[in-house]
Amino acid sequence: AQKKTILDLCKMKATGEKAVWVTAYDCCFAAYAEKAGMDMILVGDSMGMVVYGYQGTIPVTMDMCINHCQAVRRGAPNTYIIGDMPFGSYHESVGDAVHNAIRFAKEADVDAIKLEGGVAVADVIKAIAQAGIVVFGHIGLTPQSSAAMGGFRAQGRTADSARGVIEDAIAVYEAGARAVLVEGVPEEVCTIIHKTLPIPVYGIGAGSDTDGQVLVVGDALGMFEAFKPKFAKRYADIASVATKAFAQFIKETKEGSFPASEHKYSISGDSAEFKTL
Ligand code: KIV
Ligand code: NA
């Protein structure tokens, strides 16, 4: 299939076809996602937890994101790829933010970038969008500011908090974001955002009233065992498949049944000569 554009994503919104995306950080899983027909792949800063074993996304750097975006692009050459801007890459100055967004486009061939925040980052979104880069907003539960939120907590559960999330949605749209991801809010809040914004509204832990859904690959495939968010659904159990396979490899090697004859090279020369080596 041909790689989608932002116009295709808008068309899907118009026709009511849900867009589905998943995170990926490496070439193999990117290829599986593309083969399955995933509409988009997010190279999420969730790599901090899923790939690197950190407690959160704060330690993730620009170079880590660029490297993983490049690997994902090699694995999924025909899939719409979103690069996630890591903590610190768009917080110091607008100039810095534009510079880093441009790195994603130039060095990693992404189709869009995503960054967290609403009203507070409207100027940053505006500047990046004006550089011609497609920006996805990300509002609600924003893991990069989990310290300020007091942890990975759902947002918008009170009227005051919900108002804030809705204001953030409008701010990112007005700043020029072409799509927005709403994370960790009651369905009612996302319904209002979905009704209000003319751009695609995607959700993770935000209910059904969206233009599509995203899951973190570690959650979707049961690879990431440190914790499971309420909104994550496990579609596979890679952790147990991999652990069982490793255990079998250990067992067969210890008992000598691996490698077997089909795993061995045969000599192509005169076997008699080999006897005198
Ligand atoms: O980094 C990530 O995986 C995300 C999720 C919310 C999809 O941003
Ligand atoms: Na992220």
From TrEMBL:
Task of the protein: Catalyzes the reversible reaction in which hydroxymethyl group from 5,10-methylenetetrahydrofolate is transferred onto alpha-ketoisovalerate to form ketopantoate.
Active-site residues, as the UniProt record annotates them: 183
Family of this protein: Belongs to the PanB family.
One GO cellular component, as annotated: cytoplasm
Molecular function terms, GO-annotated: 3-methyl-2-oxobutanoate hydroxymethyltransferase activity; magnesium ion binding; methyltransferase activity
EC number: 2.1.2.11
Cofactor requirements of the protein: Mg(2+)
Superkingdom of origin: Bacteria
Binding residues annotated for 3-methyl-2-oxobutanoate, in chain numbering: 45-46, 84, 114
Subunit structure: Homodecamer; pentamer of dimers.
GO biological process, one term: pantothenate biosynthetic process
Main location class: cytoplasm
Localization, UniProt: Cytoplasm
Keyword presence, Methyltransferase: yes
Catalytically driven reaction(s): (6R)-5,10-methylene-5,6,7,8-tetrahydrofolate + 3-methyl-2-oxobutanoate + H2O = 2-dehydropantoate + (6S)-5,6,7,8-tetrahydrofolate
One Pfam family cited in the UniProt record for this chain: Pantoate_transf
UniProt-recorded name of the protein: 3-methyl-2-oxobutanoate hydroxymethyltransferase
UniProt KW Repressor keyword: no
